[in-house]
């Protein structure tokens, strides 16, 4: 009888162990499916056709969602395995030449010009003054008549890439260092604030959009994500000067994080503002010889004329009846969100999510990789609307084949509606009164992270 009892207990314990292991296996299985799908997306011929271009990343995104939900609801998977799958996905795409974007050639050109002792803001790539230093890949540079739009820290990084060999692979390896550094910061923030590090790692490290844009397309946005996440981490130290300096570095990779300065300056004081301004001034100083007009020429052209994958901006444009008025209107709306975050004294994490998220939702130009700028905050908070936006962003590549064939990028209305209506629907659902009366465990976590009780 005793032996029979012990045997049943052993069987029950074994069954319990099997039950505990299966959710971890579920997460890893879908992670490996995602890696295989991304490998097919990058390596198989025929992706110039729109349908495979969308179906393969869609399948990868579904695997990503399944893994993320499994990591959220089940026991925590070993972090080393999550890191292994994330790194494997990047290694699979690392050897490939970029096909979805040619931005890398602009990065390489700016760095090449800088190392030649020429101010990259002084002339656009096609200017005759630069004819003597043109490279064999000069013809690959997009919009050669437009001066660079990238801020000074980006220029320094482009110069670093050229010092490291000036190859696409060198650029990818440098960007991946920042990418993995960002994941490490997020893991630490999650552990410090009582959140599930496995869940946060899956939502960030396994993001198909992040993997494709960094390891394949060689976009350098992961550098900005590193500094953006560092802003959240530094906020826990309660050092306003360091916070302002790191925010300045993030804004000098790409300008968007600068919109979060007002709520941060109000919450952490004048030293945050002074440090931000000082960092920007120091890094801009070596380039001021080109003059204010040259420093801002590319940015002004971009702000006036660029448009791609716009969402709510289409409605604003219809109501305003004029592109300039519409762009001013959406800029004011984003500033209004920043003002609200300032008035309500939002935490750093929440302010960044709201302000950068508003910028994406309202911007006239949303290239797929722009969506990455909300990913660290969305991963920390499990924010479904912007995680979904990361999957739907691949729809932004629908017109690539047509553009390569005709020089005109088709943007059918159904495509933009499919990109943005589900995201807006989820946001409105989360903001519904019936939802706001129910405590949301993700809402107040950032307050604890920064040593405050509320947001």
Number of helices: 22
The low-pLDDT segments are: 1-8, 10-21, 437-455
The tally of strands reads: 0
The main β sheet shows up as: none
Mean pLDDT: 88
The gross shape turns out to be globular
Helices and strands: which structural class? mainly alpha
Task: Report on the architecture of this protein.
By secondary structure, the chain is mainly α. The chain is built from 22 helices and no strands. The N and C termini lie far apart (60 Å).
Quick recap of the structure?
With 455 residues, this protein is an all-alpha fold.
Key structural traits:
single chain, 455 residues, mainly alpha, globular, disordered N terminus, disordered C terminus
Layout of SSEs?
Layout: H1 2-43, H2 50-73, H3 79-93, H4 103-115, H5 152-163, H6 168-192, H7 197-205, H8 208-216, H9 221-235, H10 240-251, H11 261-268, H12 270-284, H13 292-305, H14 312-320, H15 323-343, H16 348-362, H17 375-381, H18 384-392, H19 400-406, H20 413-431, H21 433-436, H22 445-449
